[in-house]
Write a structure and sequence with these properties.
single chain; alpha+beta; about 210 residues; 7 helices; two-stranded antiparallel ribbon
Length: about 210
């Protein structure tokens, strides 16, 4: 028996052991699709299992808030370069409710409490509903990016003010040097402690609007 024939079963077993299960391959924390003409070709954003990520869940259970920042972009196919036809950002904070009584999803003004992680995930997905739609005929596609970041409690207060339209110097781009350094140091500490951050991206296929 040749070496190639003898080694083939070993290589096959090795490849099978390294390949992720089909269920894991199919499970994506972010997906986007375009509706049809009846819904004016709007984007539908799906976030299945985004809060089931072990690192994010452990951060929540430790009392650390999470910031979810979604950016949806509508692009029009054009020559020689595609053109950005519209963009929208949606931010939400998710944190453990006091005394461990469920979870809270908030937008800076309204807090919605959910009894379970699955319910909070459904509430978060409902918030990610971009209002973008094509305005003229053409060929289009959507690109959606989702950034998840672990916050400190002071970062959460700052985010709340920004979501309410009360952006202070720290979030308006005019922060004093000392404040900017403080924010930078906090982010470095977050990274050094291994607190989770996640970035996901997905896009639709090209669709025609007539």
């Amino acid at each position: 028996m040749s070496f190639a024939r003898r080694s083939f079963p070993v290589l096959l077993l090795l490849c099978l052991s390294l390949a992720p299960p089909a269920a894991a391959q199919a499970r994506r924390p972010l997906a986007v699709r375009a509706t049809g003409a009846e819904q004016q070709w709007r984007a539908v954003v799906l976030t299945p299992g985004v809060l089931r990520d072990r690192g994010l869940r452990e951060a929540l259970d430790s009392g650390l808030p999470l910031r979810f920042r979604l950016r949806a972009e509508l692009w029009r196919k054009n020559e020689p370069f595609d053109q950005l036809a519209g963009a929208q950002e949606i931010s939400r904070a998710v944190l453990r409710a006091p005394l461990g009584a469920g979870y809270v999803v908030e937008d800076g003004r309204v807090q919605r409490r959910y009894a379970s992680l699955a319910a909070a995930e459904a509430g978060l997905q409902a918030a990610f509903a971009p209002g973008l739609r094509p305005a003229v005929q053409g060929q289009y596609y959507y690109i959606v990016r989702l950034e998840v970041e672990t916050l400190s409690l002071s970062d959460l207060d700052e985010l709340r003010r920004w979501l309410r339209g009360e952006a202070g110097p720290a979030v308006s781009g005019e922060q004093p040097v000392g404040r900017a350094v403080e924010r930078g140091l906090r982010r470095v500490v977050v990274r050094l402690l291994g607190l989770p951050t996640r970035r996901y991206e997905d896009r639709t296929g090209v669709f025609g609007v007539r």
